[in-house]
Write a structure and sequence with these properties.
Elements: E1 6-8, E2 52-55, H1 73-82, E3 85-88, E4 127-129, H2 132-139, E5 143-146, E6 153-157, H3 163-179, E7 184-189, E8 196-200, E9 207-211, H4 214-228, E10 232-238, H5 244-251, H6 260-274, E11 278-283, H7 307-315, E12 319-322, E13 338-344, H8 351-357, E14 364-368, H9 379-382, E15 387-389, H10 392-403, E16 424-425, E17 431-432
Parallel strand pairs: 2-3, 2-13, 3-4, 6-7, 6-10, 10-11, 13-14, 14-15
Antiparallel strand pairs: 1-7, 5-12, 8-9, 16-17
Helix pairs in contact: 1-10, 2-8, 3-7, 4-6
């Protein structure tokens, strides 16, 4: 089978000096970025460390807020103005389902798009754009996040994309290079169509799917890494067009995002194999104009592609390093740096959320009742200690208090009880239960 061809742009951004060369093996995930490091992007008060929060909002599971076209981005913008560092994602999974890529198994997987809004994007200097699989490994303490000044971004286009639609995407890429100065250096077309398949799990109601030719995607990514020396990968795969009813529901702000599950499959595959930032934008037939359109879905009606937000996010996404004793010396962000995590009320069963909840010094976990999904993974069901709030207004207020070192309960009426006395130890070594409140 012939190798895919690299297509070189006439204009290329200046190269950044190498720190370490890329791996030439698809299976070798332990690569080192060649981007210049920064030890910190944020300024903190003397004597206090920076406050870091993680925001997770799944799509593909009908999240009321964040389940559409970047409609959780206003929450991220507001939260980023309160914390010193915010970690969020273009997509995040609930459970490991990379078997679905090759058609094996029937697990569950969620995608999320907190920071992606198709043609819209809002740059935030203190936000780390982290792919979902990498976010889980980060939460587990296996990977560290290394901030960068800039990534060289490579683009993979599915051979199944029609010529006119491919040209639309390439023109958008050149627009981001010329108008935004984004470092998208080269693109490649896969050597065979990826053949995306998608469906909704009848038991859970989540969107999911698979690639019939994941090998073609991996070969294309490997070629870009080897020949173009890229640090991040954007993927555009040709998606089957939705049924009219499903499309209408989504455009009206109802139901689930039928594309989300497979988008997560694609980016997870790349990140798992290469440990490189990756995000996906689907290639779809342009929709007919509708008079009934929800503002939550309207960002996807602006143009022919969803690429701009993906390329902007990847251009300065942190690199993923295997957590080691050198991580702190390299100015990396570690899971132990996380102070709080915000989740939808019933989507707390993901690998990342469970990893944070199991830590000895776990961060403050906040769940938002107004953001409901088709899942039923509540903190009560999972026996996770958490603060429940009604909406994101309250969540951000709780985080502001937490960052200030203030007990959030002291901001509410009659929420502070009399101090309790702890158990004491008698001379025979047995605890005497004396916990009580003063009257």
């Amino acid at each position: 089978m012939p190798l895919p061809l690299i297509h070189r742009h006439t204009l290329r951004p200046p190269s950044v000096p190498n720190v370490s060369s890329h791996s030439s093996s698809v299976g070798n995930k332990y690569r080192t970025p060649h981007q210049k490091r920064i030890s910190s992007s944020y300024s903190y008060l003397p004597g206090k460390r920076g406050y870091t929060s993680v925001m997770i909002v799944p799509t593909g599971i009908g999240a009321s807020i964040g389940g559409y076209a970047g409609d959780a981005l206003p929450v991220a913008r507001t939260l980023a103005s309160v914390v010193d560092s915010l970690i969020s994602h273009p997509n995040v999974k609930r459970n490991e389902t990379l078997n679905l890529i090759c058609g094996k198994g029937s697990g569950t997987l969620d995608s999320a798009t907190v920071l992606n809004a198709a043609m819209l994007y809002w740059p935030m200097s203190n936000v780390l754009y982290v792919e979902g699989y990498a976010l889980d490994r980060f939460a587990e303490g296996l990977w560290a996040l290394q901030p960068v000044h800039q990534n060289r971004v490579g683009l993979v286009l599915d051979a199944g994309i029609e010529n006119e639609l491919r040209l639309r995407h390439l023109q958008v890429v050149d627009a981001t290079r010329a108008s935004l100065g984004l470092p998208v250096v080269e693109y490649i077309v896969t050597d065979t169509p990826l053949q995306v398949e998608k469906w909704v799990d009848p038991k859970s109601g989540q969107s999911t799917g698979r690639l019939k030719r994941p090998d073609s995607l991996l070969r294309a990514v490997q070629t870009l890494i080897d020949q173009s020396n890229v640090d991040a990968i954007a993927v555009v795969a040709r998606f089957p067009d939705d049924d009219i009813e499903d499309t209408d529901n989504y455009r009206q702000g109802m139901g689930i995002d039928h594309l989300a599950g497979v988008e997560a499959v694609i980016s997870h595959l790349v990140v798992k194999n290469f440990r490189i930032p990756c995000a996906h934008a689907p290639a779809l037939t342009p929709l007919q104009l509708t008079m009934s359109l929800s503002p939550k879905s309207a960002a996807e009606e602006i143009g022919y592609t969803f690429l701009p937000c993906v390329l902007a996010g990847l251009s300065n996404a942190p690199q993923y390093l295997v957590n080691s004793s050198e991580s702190l010396q390299r100015g990396c962000v570690l899971a132990s740096d996380v102070d709080s995590i915000i989740l939808p009320i019933d989507a707390c069963g993901g690998d990342g959320a469970l990893a944070f909840a199991s830590k000895r010094n776990k961060p403050l976990i906040i769940t938002v009742e107004e953001n409901q999904t088709v899942l039923n993974d509540t903190t009560d069901k999972l026996e996770i200690e958490a603060v429940k709030v009604s909406n994101y207004w309250e969540a951000i207020g709780v985080i502001a208090a937490h960052k200030a070192g203030v007990d959030p309960n002291s901001l509410r009426q009659n929420r502070i009880r009399n101090i309790r006395r702890t158990s004491s130890i008698s001379s025979d070594g047995y605890a005497i239960s004396t916990a009580s409140s003063f009257n």
